[in-house]
Every structure is written in C-alpha cells, then in structure tokens.
Design a protein that fits this description.
By secondary structure, this protein is of the alpha+beta class. It is built from 3 helices and 3 strands, in the order βαβαβα. The two termini are about 30 Å apart.
C-alpha cells in the first residue's frame, strides 16, 4: 500500500485566526523563535498498491476540486509517501535478519 499526501494552506492574503492564536500562545509557553504561524490541512490518501504517476494525477485533481477551496486556499504539495506501517515492517524484518 502507498499513500499520497496533500497539503493545503490558506492563501497568504486570507486572515488566519487559528494561526494567529497559536502564534500568540507560543511565547507564553516559552517558545519565542517564530514570528508567524499559518494553519493548514493535510490529507493522506491511501491506495491499494503502488503510487504511480496516474495516482498522483488523480490526487492532484481531487486536491484542486474537492480537498481545497480555490477561492481561499492553495494546494501546496501532492506527493507520494511510503506507508508508515510497511516501512516499520521492513525495518523490523531487516533488524531480525541482521540479528541472526
């Protein structure tokens, strides 16, 4: 199985009250390294099989037509990402084989 990750952000000219609230809270927590925070959305689309160019194109279409509101949001990335469970299983198998 593979995953396609889609990140959507508010356009820069759109006010971001949630981001502003987080930016205001960070210094109160002693985290004062950041001058701005923008909030966004992440979608993880799982496919049964490999993430191909065709799958990525379909994900881009979904991102532009359903997952984002093009009036106020930008699709900032659509990318393939390995399934975390599959990666862990591969790592566990490799670790078990090297321990033998």
């Amino acid at each position: 199985m593979g995953n396609v990750v889609v990140d959507v952000m508010l356009k820069p000219e759109i006010l971001d009250p949630q981001g502003q609230a987080v930016a205001g809270a960070l210094p109160r927590l002693g985290i004062d390294h950041f001058i701005d925070v923008r909030q966004g959305k992440r979608f993880v689309l799982t496919v049964d099989g490999e993430v191909t160019d065709e799958v990525l194109a379909a994900a881009r279409r979904a991102a532009e037509t359903l997952l984002s509101n093009p009036v106020i949001e930008d699709v900032v990335s659509v990318r393939a990402e390995q399934d975390v469970e599959a990666v862990r299983a591969e790592q566990d198998t490799a670790a078990a084989e090297s321990a033998r």
